[in-house]
Specification:
Two copies of one chain form a homodimer. The first copy, chain A, has two domains: 4-163 and 300-326, Rossmann fold (3-Layer(aba) Sandwich); 166-295 and 329-342, Rossmann fold. Chain A is an alpha/beta fold and 344 residues long. In chain A, β6 (185-190), α10 (195-210) and β7 form a beta-alpha-beta unit. Chain A contains 14 helices and twelve strands. Helix content of chain A is 43%, strand content 16%. Chains A and B meet through α4, α5, β2, α7 and α12 of A and α4, α5, β2, α7 and α12 of B. Chain A binds a DNA duplex (30 and 30 nucleotides) through α2 and α4.
Amino acid sequence: MASIKDVAKAAGVSVTTVSRTINNNPSISIETREKVLKAIKDLNYSPNSMAKGLSSNNSYTITLLVNVEDEKSFYNPFFYEVMHGIEKVVYEREYCLIVANLSTMLKKENVLDWLIKGKRTEGVILPSSIIDSRMVKGLRNNNIPFVSLGEPTSLRETINWVDINNRKAGEQAVYYLLDDNRKRVAFIGYDSSKVFSIRRLEGYKAALENSKINFDAGLIIEGRNSKEDGYRMMKALLNKNDIPDSVVCADNLISIGAIRAIQDSGLLIPQDISVISFDNSQIAELIYPSVSTINVDVFELGVQSAKMLFELIEKPGTRDQELLISTNVEERETTIRNNQQHEV
Amino acid sequence: MASIKDVAKAAGVSVTTVSRTINNNPSISIETREKVLKAIKDLNYSPNSMAKGLSSNNSYTITLLVNVEDEKSFYNPFFYEVMHGIEKVVYEREYCLIVANLSTMLKKENVLDWLIKGKRTEGVILPSSIIDSRMVKGLRNNNIPFVSLGEPTSLRETINWVDINNRKAGEQAVYYLLDDNRKRVAFIGYDSSKVFSIRRLEGYKAALENSKINFDAGLIIEGRNSKEDGYRMMKALLNKNDIPDSVVCADNLISIGAIRAIQDSGLLIPQDISVISFDNSQIAELIYPSVSTINVDVFELGVQSAKMLFELIEKPGTRDQELLISTNVEERETTIRNNQQHEV
DNA sequence: CTTCTTTATGAAACCGTTTTCATAACCTGA
DNA sequence: TCAGGTTATGAAAACGGTTTCATAAAGAAG
């Protein structure tokens, strides 16, 4: 394997000169530069990343830290798209992306020491669900920049994070339904333990208030994210006197159950009740009728989190930042506005 | 940041001794060993991975190479599970997993040189869909072990690969239906450009032959993997004189379309026609009726590919291997055997 | 024609490990 | 008692880069 010495010898210069050529040092003359580049090409030379890393004290590596056992992070159908966004930015900057799994690594003595003191990474991106004060302290003590994927929950410290604009997403869902002449908008699947759910409900309320519609607590149903709970919650709404004419579902799984409940009651979608959900996934498009969704751009979430991380690496003193990414509506059969249901 | 020298000084020994202690060299006396371990703990020392890598000429890193723009690899809902399997094995061996995207990296001069000559990786795992002769040559020339995720298509070279046992999966689907007293088993969504599809059809034929049932080419319908094509293919079968009493769908998406077609014809599932599909995904469980599937264990696929790779790294001369992972049936509503349809 | 600056280059130290080779201290058996 | 072997340790070279400092050559200013 050709080393920088071999290149130096072949080009008839010193290793210093070769190093400077590679790193585009301006003090190299054009002729020398070309001699060196030719030698590099002839020998098919590529710099040894570990030697480079050792001498420049930079691993040129970013870590994506996940927890496979945590459903909210790794086992999320969106996750690979987030990763794609991160990966794109990381490689553009000539860094490497390493993926590490907390639950695998926790069996080791100390993950962060291994990762950070071991000089394996220059920065970490990690889902908010695995962040707690201990993690923040560990990262801060090691002086390692990090960005949270998602708004952190109940954390005293301020940290850097990127998230979908869930509040706006909640507003967007309601405004969309109101624009379609709906009067009673329900919200099912609210989960007070999830920040994103809290934000979406905030948006729901804000949109109603803004539209001078009284908030009816009876239209908010709490529940977990499953089709069974979706069915149960929708049934609960339908058993009341004053049923809603539209429903915002916290998730696609919930909307599947809710749709079945509505159909079982002999009501038509979207004529009698229209349905909208968050988090566009393949499922929303595949079931029948297909579900209108508020789409989140998780690729962009990845891109922005990586960009934020590089900013922190480059300018260490930067103040903590929060970045929100906007959403958009994707209209499907559960809310077709002209009140005609489409065929398969 | 504490280095090995600091530890040596604190323990009152040489760096050699510290290094030996870390690497469990048997020639270190118990007392010395304990002195060193104490110093390591006191200083909160972790070895610098790049220095270690440089001197031992081992990056302790495995690369998962994907192509985001290739639907068959990265944008596959199973992919993160495969990754999880790989990750588990990789970190157990104290290696790092780096994820690299071909299409991002191809914009660079030469991905493999950057990765391999740059001493960034000891081995590569990559989906068969991005393997061609050029890739194989590149890896072989660089003397870098690699394992293909999936049986390679039309490749002259023999290489190491791990795949789902698709032939057996095809047999399994047919045997399952025959055991349920079905007589005419159709197969829709056959795609001759996909190895896994070819294998599954082989299994289908083998199971029929083995059961002394004549093969009827009219029961095989070719088509793409979409719900629209599933609908079309099923309709084609239903328009014939002698319709099937059961159908094997190449994929979940196809089964969704097929189910709709059967229902539109006024036939009952599973009473009149039972449906089975491959590749258990969330969708199979969520749609109505839920689809019985031949389940593939993609986590295991990841585990085995990583294990194979480490074997190649440890014993370079090993002959090329092919490893097949078995499948199992998951019974759901489209094939309930007692001919009673379940509720939601 | 000096002296001072700029430009282009190289020698050598350094980054933090592993590993080879040397050696001191201790045992073993004749 | 001493040759020979074992055990425990350390000094120094090596890995392949980057960076500091020194310097020769060339140009500019007086």
